[in-house]
Amino acid sequence: MDFYALTIHQLNDLLQKKEVSSVEVTNSVLTRIEQVEDKVGAYITIDREKALVQAAAADKLMGEGGGGALCGIPLALKDLICTKGMRTTCGSKILESFVPPYDATVVEKLKEAGAVIIGKVSMDEFAMGSSNENCAFGVPRNPWNHDYICGGSSGGSAAAVAADECIAAVGSDTGGSIRQPASHCGVVGLKPTYGRISRFGLVAYASSLDQLGPITKDVRDCALMLKVMSGYDPKDSTSVKQEVPDYAGALTEGLRGLKVGIPAEYFEEGLDPEVEKAVRNGIDLMQQAGAEIVDVSLPHTAYGVAAYYIIAPAEASSNLARYDGIRYGFRDMDADDLADLYRKSRSQGFGDEVKRRIMIGTYALSSGYYDAYYKKALQVRTLIVEDFKAAFEKCDVMVSPVTPAPAWRLGEKVDDPLSVYLSDILTISANLAGVPGISVPCGFSGSGLPIGLQMQAAHFEEEKLLRAAFNLEKSLGIVGQRTTAL
Ligand code: GLN
């Protein structure tokens, strides 16, 4: 049996019944990686030995009658999540040999649950990008068609799940980086409410927007991962003291009584007809399953990209000031003096997109421009928050596309950052407002590339989101469809 192709809940069943061991499952995933990794390129670091030690420990725990849903399950982590003793590069030359002295809270939680960490997966440098082409260590490819991007910035996480190179993965989402690659790779990706999951040990890009979340093969797995990853953490003052529900338990109810809002601004000109068709088909299925469809409006959507591309770079310019060549990370050894050391280390350590953002952010925060750019962007952010509040008075979840078009060809937009920024228009607002969003596979383009459907809900309404997504997944019947391009 190809254990690597199974989901968390399928494997958990077999593991609990002792029909398979975690060591066998982990070996199956490691063999799969050997077979397909040269075509996908999802991983930056793999630690076979440690993974097998963790698998043996999980088997022991289960042998003693312990272990929950994630026990013995091989996972991959986006390479901006600190792992004690395991290199954490953020896809950047500046952190090429950085080995964190501690685990992120989310890693502690996953390890406590008995999960097996296979390794660290590719990403756009410091999570800045939408195609994973901004990575200093090679570019992963879309497992459905190797000429196409897998999306970003959690491209390695989504590609690894889609290629069965792990059973599930953790990604991060600042402006769509979980949902967009999940959509392009035909897997499920959830960005939880801001504050649901601790950000302690997540290397900061834009702290008021960053959130960790699961990328999985189906919605049930997503619920199981979210349960383990969530919760208040005294080490992250923005994590919220709110009970963590039994998310998987919410998956039994149907859609009757659920109000599904269709935000007009997410279906405007420029939307690819194949994407629109697949998403509208999803909406029809939800209606047939008993959901009530209502029209809603998010009138400030069009300003989201402009506001985000001020706020995120502004926060990044401050967060990334710590990479100075002194404290940790890459250092240029030929510098003449301190200023030269900063300049040379940062010039060589950061890639072009990161430098572009640092410059935009520094400019937007500088005296004289602060009011015109940063303050204005924050005012727009408030309007977007208000849009969501008003919309959720009329509905429980909102359904829309995740991206205006399916994945683009590798290289197609490398010289056109603006068009890449604009492609984030449908995911960015959820981060600005802090609400949860999920991407669920809902179809394929004529050329066989996956298309995702996005659902958004009010703060801490992940249960509604998962319940709606679970029902849609059932009606669509495309879950479990795997790529044949590997
Ligand atoms: N594409 C967006 C950006 O480049 C979002 C990235 C993310 O969510 N990390 O900023």
Please characterize this protein's 3D structure:
This protein has helices spanning 8-16, 22-40, 48-63, 105-112, 155-162, 179-185, 219-229, 273-288, 304-319, 338-349, 352-365, 371-391, 417-422, 428-433, 462-476, and strands spanning 43-46, 74-78, 116-121, 168-173, 188-191, 211-216, 259-263, 292-296, 397-401, 437-444, 450-457. It has 486 residues and is of the alpha/beta class. The radius of gyration is 21 Å and the shape is globular. It has an eleven-stranded mixed β-sheet, sandwiched between helices. The model has no long low-confidence stretch (mean pLDDT 97). The protein has a domain at 3-233 and 461-476: Amidase signature (AS) domain (Amidase signature (AS) enzymes). Glutamine (GLN) is lined by residues 127-130, 153, 173-177, 205, 312, 424.
Label the CATH architecture of the domain at 3-233 and 461-476: Alpha-Beta Complex
How is the main sheet built? 11 strands, mixed
Instruction: Write down how many β-strands occur, each being a DSSP E stretch of 2 or more residues.
Output: 11
CATH class of the domain at 3-233 and 461-476: Alpha Beta
Count of DSSP H/I helices:
15
CATH superfamily of the domain at 3-233 and 461-476: Amidase signature (AS) domain
Main-sheet strand order equals: 1-3-2-4-6-5-10-11-9-7-8
Query: What structural category arises from helix and sheet content?
Result: alpha/beta
Shape: globular
What do we call the CATH topology of the domain at 3-233 and 461-476?
Answer: Amidase signature (AS) enzymes
The level of helicity is 25-40%
User: What ligands are attached or bound here?
Assistant: glutamine
| Quaternary form | single chain
List the uncertain runs.
none
